[in-house]
Specification:
Layout (H helix, E strand, L loop, with lengths): L10 E6 L3 H9 L5 E7 L3 E3 L4 H5 L9 E3 H4 L6 E5 L2 E5 L4 E4 L3 E3 L2 E4 L3 E4 L16 H20 L3 H7 L1 E5 L3 H17 L13 E5 L11 H13 L2 E4 L2 E7 L2 E6 L2 E6 L2 E4 L2 E4 L2 H9 L9 E2 L5 E2 L2 E6 L4 E2 L12 H19 L14 E6 L2 E5 L4 E3 H19 L3 H13 L10 H20 L8 H15 L1
Parallel strand pairs: 1-2, 1-9, 2-5, 9-21, 11-12, 11-17, 12-13, 19-22
Antiparallel strand pairs: 3-4, 6-7, 7-8, 10-18, 14-15, 15-16, 20-21, 23-24, 24-25
The chain binds flavin-adenine dinucleotide.
The site of flavin-adenine dinucleotide has 34 residues, from α1, β2, α2, α6 and α9.
Length: 470
C-alpha cells in the first residue's frame, strides 16, 4: 500500500459515489493540490430526502437532481466519470469498472445503501421502496394509477383495495409518504374524480417498533402519530409484516394476525449497505455488520488500509454512543468533509483527531403546516417546525444549484394545494392503459348497459366509452 506524499506528483484521489458523502469530499478538495476523480453510475447527485415529494406528485425528478458535471464545472482538479465500479484491487491500488481500471493513491468509497427486505426478496416487486428517481417515478405511477383504477372499478371490494395504501416502516420516509398520500386523498384530489370519494381512502402505516420516528424524542414521535391520525392515517405500531402476496398484506400485532387487501403497498422499512461493502470485505478482509455496512476505524479508514476510506450510509462508525451513527445526510456530509481535510493534512505530513459527528438534530414533514423538529437545544412541532423544515431544505437545495424553482413550486402548492407533477408515466403505464381499455371494451360488448341504476354507474359508463374510443 502506497500513500504518495511526494511533492510535484499529483496525488490521485478516487471517490466512488456522488451522493452526500462523495460530493462533500470532492467539494472540500476542490482547491487542494490533488487530482480528484469522482465516479458515479448516475450523472447526477440526487437529493434523496425529497424523493417522497416526487413519489407523491409535488416535485418532478429534475427539481431534486443536480448534474455532477455542473456542480464541479469550476473545480479544475475534479474529473467526473460516469460508470459503475464493480471491483477494487487494493494491492495494485485500482478501481475496476466494466471496461477500464482507474488507479488511486487514496480511495473514498461512498456508495450508500439499498433497500432491504429482511430475507423476503419476493416482496420487492410487490412493495417497492424509495431510493432512486426511478423508484419515485414508479411509486408515483402506482399511487396515481390506484385512484384511476378505483374510479373505473365497479366492484366495491376491489375498489376498496385500490383505495387502500399500506406503508411499511414508520421512519421519516414512511411518515412523510403517509402524510403526503393522506393530503392527496383527503384534500388535493377530492374534487377531481366523479365516481369515487377519495376521502374514503384508507392509509395504513405499519411500524415494527413502539414508536414512529424512533430517532426522535418520544414526545415528538407521539405528536407525529397524532398529526398523522388527524390527517386520516391509521398508525399501527409494534406491528410486523409477515407476508405480502396477491395484493394482501398480512401483519402481526402481538398475537393478533390481520390481513388487509391493498393494491398499493410501499416499502420504507429496511436498508442494507451497497454491494461495494461486500467487495471491500472480500478484497481486504474488513468486517461488515449485519446490515452490510463496513466497520470503519475512528478516522474512517478500514483496518489495514490507511488509504481506503468508507463514509456515509455504507459505513458503520460506532465510536460515539457505542451504536452506529444513523444513515442520514448530515453524517455523510460531515464524514466527506472530514476525509477531505484529513487527506490534505496527510499531504502536509500531519494528522487530524478522529472523526466526530456533530448531531444537528432531525426533522420530518407530516403535512401542510405540520412537521416535527428535534434539535439538541429545542423541540418544535406544528407550523413553526414546518417553517423550519422549509428553511433547512431550501438552504440545502440552494447550496447545490439554483433550485429556486422548488421554492416557487412549494409556494404555489401551498396556496393552491395543487400538485402539478402527478403524472402517470412509463411503458408500464401505457401497457396498463391498453389492458384497461381493451377489457373495458370487451366488458361493454358482453354486457351492454341498458339501465344504469345510479348516477355513479352512468358516469362510469360514460368515462369508459371515452376511454375506449380515445
Ligand atoms: C427516501 C429517502 C429519504 C431520506 N430522507 C432523509 C432526511 O429527511 N434527512 C436526512 O438527513 N437523510 C435522509 N435520507 C438519508 C440520506 O439521503 C442518506 O443518508 C445519504 O444520501 C447518504 O449519503 P451517501 O453518500 O452515503 O450515499 P448516497 O447519497 O446514497 O449516494 C451513493 C451514490 O453512489 C453511487 N453508487 C452506488 N454504487 C456505485 C457503484 N458501484 N459505482 C458507481 N457509483 C455507485 C450512487 O449512484 C449514488 O449516487 C433519506 C434517504 C432516502 C432514500
Amino acid at each position: 500500500m502506497v500513500v504518495s506524499l511526494e511533492k510535484n506528483v499529483p496525488h490521485e484521489v478516487v471517490i466512488i459515489g456522488g451522493g452526500f458523502g462523495g460530493l462533500y469530499t470532492a467539494k472540500t478538495l476542490k482547491k487542494a493540490n490533488v487530482n480528484v476523480t469522482l465516479i458515479d453510475k448516475r450523472n447526477f447527485h440526487l437529493f434523496q430526502p425529497l424523493l417522497y415529494q416526487v413519489a407523491t406528485g409535488t416535485l418532478s425528478p429534475a427539481d431534486i437532481s443536480s448534474p455532477l458535471r455542473a456542480i464541479f464545472k469550476k473545480s479544475k482538479n475534479t474529473h467526473v466519470f460516469l460508470g459503475e465500479v464493480n471491483d477494487i484491487d487494493p494491492e495494485t491500488q485500482e478501481v475496476i469498472l466494466r471496461d477500464r481500471t482507474i488507479p488511486y493513491d487514496t480511495l473514498v468509497v461512498a456508495t450508500g445503501a439499498n433497500h432491504f427486505y429482511y430475507g423476503h426478496d419476493n416482496w420487492r416487486p410487490l412493495a417497492p421502496g424509495l431510493k432512486t428517481v426511478e423508484d419515485a417515478v414508479e411509486m408515483r405511477r402506482r399511487i396515481f394509477s390506484a385512484f384511476e383504477a378505483a374510479e373505473k372499478e365497479t366492484d366495491p371490494e376491489k375498489r376498496r383495495a385500490w383505495l387502500t395504501f399500506v406503508i411499511v416502516g414508520g421512519g421519516p420516509t414512511g411518515v412523510e409518504l403517509a402524510g403526503a398520500i393522506a393530503e392527496l386523498a383527503h384534500k388535493t384530489l377530492k374534487e377531481d374524480f366523479r365516481n369515487i370519494d377519495t376521502s374514503e381512502t384508507k392509509i395504513l402505516l405499519l411500524q415494527g417498533g413502539e414508536y414512529i420516528l424512533p430517532h426522535m424524542a418520544s414526545q415528538l414521535s407521539e405528536v407525529g402519530k397524532v398529526s398523522l391520525q388527524k390527517l386520516g392515517v391509521v398508525v399501527n405500531t409494534k406491528t410486523r409484516v409477515t407476508n405480502i402476496e396477491n395484493d394482501i398484506v398480512t401483519f402481526k400485532q402481538g398475537e393478533e394476525v390481520e390481513e388487509i387487501a391493498s393494491k398499493t403497498i410501499l416499502w420504507a422499512a429496511g436498508v442494507k449497505g451497497s454491494p461495494m461493502g461486500q467487495v471491500l470485505a472480500n478484497r481486504t478482509g474488513v468486517e461488515c455488520d449485519r446490515s452490510g455496512r463496513v466497520i470503519v476505524e475512528p478516522d474512517l479508514t478500514i483496518k489495514g488500509y490507511k488509504n481506503i476510506f468508507v463514509i456515509g450510509d455504507l459505513a458503520n462508525f460506532s465510536y460515539q454512543d457505542a451504536k452506529p451513527l444513523p444513515g442520514v445526510a448530515p453524517v455523510a456530509k460531515q464524514q466527506g468533509e472530514y476525509v477531505a481535510k484529513l487527506i490534505k493534512k496527510r499531504l502536509q505530513g500531519q494528522i487530524l483527531p478522529q472523526f466526530r459527528y456533530n448531531d444537528v438534530g432531525s426533522l420530518a414533514m407530516i403535512g401542510k403546516n405540520l412537521a416535527v423538529v428535534d434539535l439538541s437545544f429545542i423541540k418544535l412541532q406544528g407550523f413553526l417546525a414546518w417553517i423550519f423544515w422549509l428553511i433547512v431544505h431550501i438552504y440545502f437545495l440552494i447550496e447545490f444549484d439554483t433550485k429556486l424553482v422548488v421554492v416557487f413550486q412549494w409556494a404555489w402548492n401551498y396556496i393552491t394545494r395543487n400538485r402539478r407533477s402527478r403524472l402517470i408515466t412509463g411503458q408500464e403505464a401505457l401497457e396498463e392503459a391498453k389492458i384497461v381499455n381493451n377489457s373495458t371494451e370487451a366488458t361493454k360488448i358482453a354486457n351492454p348497459p341498458t339501465q344504469p341504476t345510479s348516477h355513479s354507474k352512468l358516469q362510469s359508463y360514460t368515462a369508459d366509452i371515452e376511454a375506449a374510443t380515445s
